[in-house]
Amino acid sequence: MDPDAPTRAPQNFSEEGFYLREFHGRTLALAVARACRTGGLEIARVLENLEANQTGVLVLSGGPPAAPELAGLPRLGAGPEPLAARVWRGLQASPALVLELPAEDFVAGCHGLALTLGLRKLVWLDEGGGLQRADGSRTSFVDLEQIEELLALGDGERAPFLVEVERALRAGLPEINLCSPEGLGEELFSYAGSGTLFTRRRYLEVRELGLDDFSSADALISRGVEEGYLAPRNRAQRDEALAHASGAFVEGVSLAGVGALLRCGQAGEIACLYALTRFLGEGIGGHLVESLCERSWTRGDTALFACTTHARSAAFFERNGFERVAPDLLPDEKWRDYDNERRDRLICLRRPRGS
Hints:
Blueprint: E1 6-7, H1 15-23, E2 27-32, H2 40-52, E3 56-61, H3 68-71, H4 83-93, E4 96-100, H5 106-116, E5 121-125, E6 141-142, H6 144-153, H7 159-171, E7 175-179, H8 184-189, E8 196-199, E9 204-208, H9 214-226, E10 233-234, H10 235-243, E11 245-250, E12 254-264, E13 267-275, H11 284-298, E14 303-308, H12 311-319, E15 323-325, H13 340-345, E16 347-352
Parallel strand pairs: 2-3, 2-5, 3-4, 5-7, 6-8, 13-14
Antiparallel strand pairs: 1-10, 7-8, 9-11, 11-12, 12-13, 14-16, 15-16
């Protein structure tokens, strides 16, 4: 392979593959109420993909699952061993197990079980799908503070469920997803999702990438290239960006955005800035830019700049303290061996030190 060849999104790159890497070797809980009678084929497809990914799935049911695709899954029976040990042994024998819980206290029982087993994610299947705003649009991300606001507004039909979600998050369950059975794959395996993701707090941790973050960050950059927001980079340039990149992590774990701080003469350049669609509106990009600015000023850069071919991206940088400038006001090193055709289409933005 030519190390100087442009690195575009891999032919086999997919959002599903990105999330499957995140789930590899882990166990997910899937809560399926008996009233949930649709989406069996989609559930079966997702279970098949998770099995191939070596991801265990514990299907929690309030009785025999209505979906015929789940009827053949082995049941976890009673036994003298501790529940965690029985689940662990059961998942070694089968990639997916069904555990029936009392129907009268199903929601609280599912949350309690996920906490007892120390699972990171519980996915609720509900034919109504995720939460919706008054205008009918989907609410894709909700934290504890927002749950309290929803309860105060009196979301009657789903209030009991939201109360239990709040309790589970406060007790330590990291993530709860709510989606329709038909939307399960999109909720688990796409950046946009199909339902609602509940977490304890909206708090974002922005930090420099560690080695184990590189694969996820590289996948995000590939996605940005595929969508046309990021310029293709050869392998050496991609590695340089990853080595100097920071990530925005939701709950300190889930990578929601990435951005690199490169050196260009006496100035810094923000490159490969990309945030997941699901978290747009949560300030991911702004948090990343401020962190990169702080790093840039700390190391003594005289200015910080960014270049883009998209007016929407340029407007984002302008909202974050950058001003449009002529290309010749950027360091000469930026244009060494640069494609002139692309340069003619660039919008260049600059933020002076201390601003």
